[in-house]
Amino acid sequence: TSGITLPAPYYQPEEDDERPFICSLAQDNGIMSCNDVPARREGGRECCLDKDDALHRQALGLSAEPLVNGSASAMGLCVNWNQYYTRCHTGHTNPHKGAINFDNIGYAWIVIFQ
Fold first, then answer.
1. Domains of the chain: which residue ranges?
2. CA 97 to each of CA 14, 16, 39: distance values in angstroms, whole numbers, following the listed order
3. Cβ count near 75 (within 10 Å)
4. What is the pLDDT of residues 2-35, one digit of tens each?
């Protein structure tokens, strides 16, 4: 075992229902794309390490992610797992408690008046 905890298989924002992250496929011309996934944050700080940094620290006998040990001086020394979410595809259900979001007002009017 490597001692490194891998993230969920798909990006899940914090429990912030007010601003869910919904990426759009390139052909859909949405507001956010898969490249816009925000950096992971730990202890209020933006993480800056990658998986290779974590493996190197582990090889040196150090904690893979310093903030796990409660080191407040390790600013941003945590793995930004969010950088590895690179594949965007359609899901089975609408996010944000099943609500529908219209990025295009024209499509919204078509649905409203059908």
1. 39-89
2. 14, 12, 24
3. 14
4. 667 777 777 777 665 566 677 777 787 777 777 7
